[in-house]
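Design review, sub-item: ligand-bound model
Attendees: FS, YL, KQ
YL presented the inputs for the KG4 complex:
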Amino acid sequence: MPPAYILAIETSCDETAAAVLKDGGVILSDIIYSQADIHKKYGGVVPEVASRKHLDVISQVVSEAMGEAGLKLAELDAVAATYGPGLAGALLAGLSYAKGLAYAIKKPLIGVNHIEGHICANFLSESAPPPPFVCLVASGGHTHLVAVNGHTDYRVIGKTRDDACGEAFDKTARALGLGYPGGPIIDAISKTGDPASINFPRAMTGDFTNFSFSGLKSAAVNHINKTVSAGAAVNAADVAASFQRAVVDVLVEKTVSACKFYKMDVIALSGGVASNSALRAAMSAACGANGFRLYMPPPALCTDNAAMIARRAFFDCAAGRFDDLSLNADPGLRLD
Ligand code: KG4
Ligand code: ZN
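KQ shared the predicted structure:
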């Protein structure tokens, strides 16, 4: 019998999240405590501060998730947690809590790969695309193109050689003095900027197996520094819009090329950057032009959340694949 209720915990970076999923598709609760306001003053996530804050709030976040789901702990079928990749201390905070809980309530434990969780955000909806499809995973830590051949059958077909694209958003926003996290702020101010005003580089076009964002990030920072040293005012909206256009062009071009190469006709998006409004619009247009079907989770399921972790855990639970309580956090866990 497939599991009915899974509680999942996600603490790989700066969000403390817990969710209860019913029957693999009904989100009974999805609680996210974001630490963004705490890390904002440092301009990025401070790992030690993140793990301490997870420890402070995890039990409250889990109680809220259980309360909103209207369930008692004994009614759960399994407890899942992200065990990598991510920040070591942050991962340990959530995983240790999940292990303790699973032991106490005598339910199985399931460790989830965070990147696989992002892919599975696509399976949370009834209109989810059936595999096979090409999934772009674009987050603060990863930029991967993945051939999703089955619900748990993933093959990495392209990835970044240097920075993740979310990281490039965050660093460009920081250079513009816009705050953290930079992606949503760049998304917002780009709406008033001219995306054609600065011709930033598009790296490695024509090769969907490789992405590179460090040159683009440096070009944006150099542009800002040069403008300032020339005594001119930086037009933040124009820089943001031009930078965003360069990222989006590359993400769309490579995802569409990969889809054509593998003779697939469905594209799915995931990861924090997949909530970017310009990327969503451009990918929709490109899919329309190529006759591809596009699936995009709602923005709140693209950024870090525990519902996607529960969705990934559901497949393991249904297949009777569980983890031992000796499971350790693996900060460098990979997809392939
Ligand atoms: O998936 P996610 O929440 O966490 C990681 O696994 O890294 O992704 C966070 C990243 C950050 O770099 C953030 O700036 C970016 O996603 N992001 C965005 C947007 N919302 C979040 N980037 C561009 N546009 C957005 N609207
Ligand atoms: Zn993530």
